[in-house]
Amino acid sequence: MTQAEFARHRGVSKAIVTKWKGQGLLAVTADGRVEVEATEWNLDQRPATNRGGTTHRPIRTIPRAEPDPRERPAPRPSKASQGAPPRQAPPPDPDDDAEAPPEFDPENPNLSLAAAAQRKENHLGLLRRQEYLTKQGKLVDRAEAEAAFFDEARAMRDAWLAWPARVGIEMADALKVDARTLTQVLATYVQQHLAELGEPSDPDLGSPEAG
Could you tell me where the Acidic residues compositional bias lies (predicted)? Predict the structure, then answer.
């Protein structure tokens, strides 16, 4: 027991128990708890007028052949070390041996009624969240995004293809070279660069599940 529990057990105040501890009457374990049997043995050896609290057993007489334990230089071994009943270990936590519940698989076609209801609520919650994020402008329609991406990429590609003819004459005048030759060279290198970039017809925006 704790000292407070032992005080209630003996019907005294905690101050009395603290006093007993100071007098060396409490048999205390390494973790500070009171060994009940050994402590009550020590308390029952005192005169009746000094016993204090509730008497749980008659005073145990000591054979005349033995000296008074209080007069010995070393304290008398506690009854706990002389065959007191061993303290029972606390019962095991039932949660330790309980089998972990199976992992919830929302794609399982054979769900129980409760699990199917849970899946329905989860999907409804995800749908409402998607609608909310769409209204907030944080989500866009995938088909519309792909169409906008394709149109923008196609416009940039067309602008690059028209760029050599648009700037070829001005660049030729600045470099003092033939305008037709320079335009053809620029067009060749622009087409080569666009070929390396690839066609914008299949943008890699990731699968719907990845988002």
Answer: 93-106
